[in-house]
Amino acid sequence: MISFLDFEKPIAELEARIHDLRQLDGEQEGGADIEDEVSRLQSKADQLLREAYENLTPWQKVQVARHPNRPQFDDYIDGLIDDFTPLSGDRAYSDDKAITGGIGRFRGRSVMVIGHEKGSDMASRVRHNFGMARPEGYRKAARLMRLAERFELPVITLVDTQGAYPGIGAEERGQAEAIARSTETCLDIRVPLIACLVGEGGSGGAVALATGNTVIMLEHAVYAVISPEGCASILWRSAERAQDAAVAMKITAQDLTELNVVDQVVEESVGGAHRNPASTIAALGDAIAGALAEFDGKDGGFMRQHRREKFLAIGQTGIA
After folding, report:
1. For residue 319, is it within any domain?
2. What is the number of alpha carbons within 13 Å of residue 59 lying toward its C-beta?
3. How many domains does the chain have?
4. Which comes out higher in pLDDT, residue 109 or 316?
5. What is the average pLDDT score of the chain?
6. Mean of the pLDDT values across residues 230-251?
7. What pLDDT, on a 0 to 100 scale, did the predictor assign at position 300?
8. Are residues 143 and 278 in the same domain?
9. Are residues 114 and 203 in the same domain?
């Protein structure tokens, strides 16, 4: 069952009314009158849904990006990757469950896939630490990227995290160094890296996997150096100004495309990816395939130089 967000309250009320009428129709002979009313209400609900998602504010996009029913890493693997074999551990401390990675076949092509996993219910969210990786997660990611480079496998990353885990143990084990090392590895490997922002792209925890040759972002995903609540707490000393922060930070896919941070935006199903995951996952697969095709026949030196030039160009104004 889909959870409704605050701004979807009118839609939720219509859906509840439709549900009640369908139950009534099943319990007794309601005739054409109930069917007509259901059809009318469904058309109205669909219209409200389209209008709402065509005019989302940045803060509403944050809410959609965090939706608990949004597709997770395992959903993308099931929809896009054949013969996926997970690879575990950083070979130094342990295996972090917030970042998953492994080898599989994407449309007949061998690839390395690495991404954040938030979990789909409370038990799995706790197991995956809500997608917030510890240092060993980023060291695992760097290890797998080097393995992909050794066997000349393209790397696909799926980014969805509020940020790296800020716990004491994580800091003691070198969280900042691990994030920096993973980001450095993204820039250094001699194979194509296609980064996909599929939910929240939070802080360095996202950048550590998103420094790719091509950065693809889902329509209602967000990407920022800090959460809107964190930004508001720093600037205005109140997390209640998160909506203002979301606007000021330019965190939406549309804003980031204009700033040349994101290369391609993939449209989501009407009402967000959580309402029709299969359609959105397929559309992302098409975007990944197109991005990989652009680097066919290019050597390792080109891959590294392409990423270097791409990220050095971000933020340039052309003013001498």
Report:
1. no
2. 15
3. 2
4. 109
5. 92
6. 92
7. 94
8. yes
9. yes
Q: Rounded to an integer, what distance in angstroms lies between the CA atom of residue 3 and that of residue 64?
A: 11
Angle separating helix axes 203-210 and 175-188, nearest 10 degrees: 30
Q: Give me the helices (H) in the chain, please.
A: 9-27, 31-54, 58-65, 73-80, 122-127, 135-150, 168-172, 175-188, 203-210, 228-235, 242-248, 253-258, 277-293, 300-313
- Asked whether residue 179 carries a pLDDT value surpassing 80, the answer given is yes
Integer Cα distance of 225 and 208 in angstroms: 12
Query: pTM score, two decimals?
Result: 0.91
Domain that holds residue 10: 6-55
Per-residue pLDDT tens for 3-60?
A: 888 898 888 888 888 888 877 755 555 556 778 788 888 888 889 999 999 989 999 9
In angstroms, rounded to a whole number, what is the distance separating the alpha carbons of residues 22 and 98? 41
Does one domain contain both 90 and 222? yes
SS3 state at 159: strand
- Encode 20-42: b = buried (16+ Cβ within 10 Å), e = exposed: ebeeebeeeebeeebeeebeebe
Residue 197 bridge partners (DSSP)? 159, 217
How many whole angstroms separate alpha carbon 199 and alpha carbon 65?
5
Q: Tell whether 89 and 68 lie within a shared domain.
A: yes
pLDDT of the residue at 32: 63
Do 111 and 226 reside in the same domain of the chain? Answer: yes
Both structure tokens of 291: 């991005």
pLDDT of residue 24: 73
228 and 257: one domain? yes
